[in-house]
Structures are given as C-alpha cells and as structure tokens.
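Friendly challenge for the regulars: who can give me the structure tokens for this chain first? No prize, just bragging rights.
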Amino acid sequence: MFKIFGGKPKVFITDERHLENMESQMRMLPQTLNQLREYGVDDSKSLKLEFFFYTNTSDKAAALSEKLFENGYESAFEVSASNKKLFIVTGLTTPIQMTADRVIEWAGKMCVLGHRQDCEFDGWGTNPDQ
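First reply, four minutes later:
Bragging rights claimed.
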C-alpha cells in the first residue's frame, strides 16, 4: 500500500460519528444544567459558555475559529496538549440565557457548525459566578 502525500486531508468526523456525538451531547445536557442549578443558576441567568472542538488539521481549526468569531464569539486554536496530531479550538460565547431550550438549541448548532468544518464539538463548560 502506498501513502499519498499532499491532496485532501483525511475526514476527521464522519456523518455517523457526528450524529453519535450530537446524541451524546444532548444526553449530557440535563446533568450539566442540573449541576448549574445547584450553584444557583436559574432560567433568568445568562452566562458566557466556554466551548471545545477537536480536529486533525490546522486549516480546519482555523476555518472553524473564523466561523465562531463571525458569530461574535472569542475563539482560538492550538495543537492539543494531549495529542500532537490534533488541534483544539476553544473560546467563549456571548452570554446565553440558561434555559434548557436555549442551551439545547445552542449545543445542537455547535455540533452542526463543527461538523461543517470537519471538527468535533467536544462540549462546553461555564463559571456560574460570572
């Protein structure tokens, strides 16, 4: 078997993996929101969310970071500390109202946006004391 140099980079996240990841993200959301409720975050609170994506090329990471910036988010990318073959895209959103419907809608959009750039949405976090 020959290795081809140059050409199109390998697909990072297949359609199947994208759907599995989206389902996983949606399953985890209620737990995360419940934990935030324990810290006093109710539906009336709006918080900036920190997000994380992974991909396999700097070009894909840069393209996603640009799209996130166009949405008004802070965004940056770098080589992953845990795997030098991967790139991580991180950043902060504008404040998002912490209702279940709003966060679910946002997370779904992040999964889709990542997939369009061949990046996998790896989740989010926040500081309830913003």
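Residues 15-125 form a domain with the Alpha-Beta Plaits fold (CATH 3.30.70.970). Strands lie at 46-47, 50-55, 74-79, 87-92, 96-97, 120-125. Your move, everyone else.
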